[in-house]
Amino acid sequence: MKKIIIFFLLLCVTQTISAEATFYYSDSKKIPLYENSSKAIIISPKSHTKTIQRIPSIKSIRSITCDDYEVTIVEKKDTATLENVKKMLPSGMTATAIYPCYKNELGCDLIPTSYIYVELKSNSDYFRLNNIAKKLGCRVINQNKFLPLWYTLCLVKDTGEDSVEIANKIMETKYFSNACPAFEMTQSISYDPSVLNQWGLYNSEYDNIDISVSEAWNYSTGRGVTVAIIDNGIDLSHEDLSENLCHDSYDAATNTCPSKIYQERAGDSHGTHCAGIIGAVRNNNTGIVGVAPESTLMSVSVDFGSADTEAQLADGINWAWKNGADIISCSWGGWQENALINQAIDNALTNGRRKLGCLTVFAAGNSFGGSQIQFPANSRDEVFAVGNIESNGIWNFTSCTGDQLLVCAPGTNILSTTVNNSYEEMSGTSMACPHVSGVLALMLELDPNLSISKAREIIAKSTKRIGHLPYSTNRTYGKWNEYYGYGLVDASKAVKNTLNIL
User: Fold this and answer.
1) How far apart, in whole angstroms, are the C-alpha atoms of residue 193 and residue 427?
2) 220 to each of 54, 105, 194, how far by Cα in Å?
3) Catalytic annotation on 430?
């Protein structure tokens, strides 16, 4: 009997080790990965994309554009192996590679894009990287313009190993500071259409469940403060935004100016919608009004359908702080940590705003049932992580929760600007995030030298205690809970606390 028990225990241990055997590196940490048996990626020449979409036994979800080929994400039966899927493809697609998709410890999808990011220890290591890349079936695509020790690689042939495995091999040579696979990044958006209004600014149905911004406008409107919106691009000709748009804009996908609008899963209006929440023009007899209606809006566009989205996001953050952004508003995120984005955020927090640090705001993320806050909202203590509430003051159940949550803001059925001089409602932490960015712009107009730590303190201590759950946890700035943070952001109290008149 004892032998049977010992054997059973050894079997359990072996299975546990096997289940956790897959991982990737980020800042030398091993981040666990678990293969997603229902999804895979197919890497093929761009001419074969439509052929993949017509294969009846698998379902094509979407595609990610790379330099030389297309990455198609497909759904498959859990019982179908990657080799079986490859056999389903037409005989003319023999050069096509098929690799697994993954989940993290929370069960959230991680989609590798076949790109790899590598950080050299010194510039002289480039030739070593180039040689190792060739041996592993990759090629070096480019050098990061803002973080020159970082390079992007892509797979160029089917070696039987995916980008996760190859990145790990590069890291384990110990010749480089970082090597991590690129995963798909998405914008934090969900849809919940309702009546057209701006309840987040003034809630006529539920008393005091709004950000009390009208009184704040007696003190400031965001004048002289530049807010960078890192997103899929802003409609630069929108009649309710153009007056407040910065002359400088940036397209991180092409490293050119001006920014452009990229189509992505939420449509083409995501960035324009976020911009309107922050800085739509006031008293122009047109459309809506933003939280900081005289702030300057800086458009930084990213192609969320590209394989190197993470590198573009890092470039966008670096470009923004280098070009005068005071606040960086980011309504996007994913479940995977990325050292390249971490370094860009660190640059903004350390070097931006005349070395005071850019106030950097992130959507907490959307996931049914309130999973833990997504990266990069959870990446740094200095980041403002924002959750989503509904117009009745209750937490939206798709809004991610956890220790890093600072405050919550209106995020459900939010009316704002969309492309072609239009207006629509959207929902998600994407919409909550720019409400806080706008309030910070009001504060910075009053005190341009406000430190990151002081701004966090003011925002946290100026909230309304709303919701259906007790604030029972003692934290740095008072009572807190994981669904609402310190509470609903209050613009009126925040500007008064900035002026020390409360």
Assistant:
1) 8
2) 56, 44, 31
3) yes
**pLDDT tens for residues 337-372?**
999 999 999 999 999 999 999 999 999 999 876 689
C-alpha to C-alpha distance for 139 and 403, rounded to whole angstroms: 40
Active-site residue, from 109, 125, 231, 251? 231
Q: What angle do CA 134, 137, 140 make, to 5 degrees?
A: 55
Instruction: For 216-255, write each residue's pLDDT tens digit.
Output: 999 999 999 999 999 999 999 999 999 999 999 999 999 9
pTM: 0.87
Hey, CA dihedral for 262, 266, 268, 270, is it positive or negative?
A: negative
38 is an active site residue: no
Q: Please tell me which residue, 495 or 89, carries the higher pLDDT value.
A: 495
Q: Which of 96, 82, 88 is closest to 46 using CA atoms?
A: 96
Euclidean distance between CA atoms 173 and 163, whole angstroms: 16
- Identified catalytic residue from 190, 306, 331, 430: 430
Run of H or E including 190: none
Q: Name residue 253's amino acid.
A: A
- Give the Cα separation of 177 and 188 in Å (integer): 30
Q: Which of 383, 393, 404 is nearest to 485 (CA)?
A: 404
Q: In what order do the strands lie in the sheet with 226-231?
A: 250-251, 296-301, 226-231, 327-330, 359-363, 384-389, 407-410
CA 43 to chain centre: 24
DSSP string covering 124-182 = GGHHHHHHHHHHTTEEEEEE-SSSTTEEEEEE-S--S--HHHHHHHHHHTSSEEEEEEE
**CB burial class (10 A; 0-12, 13-18, 19+) of residue 174?**
exposed
DSSP lists the bridge partners of residue 389 as 395, 410
Enumerate the β-bridge partners of residue 100: 40
pLDDT (0 to 100) of residue 11: 34
The residue from 48, 238, 270, 435 that is catalytic is 270
Measure the CA–CA gap between 400 and 364, rounded to whole angstroms: 6
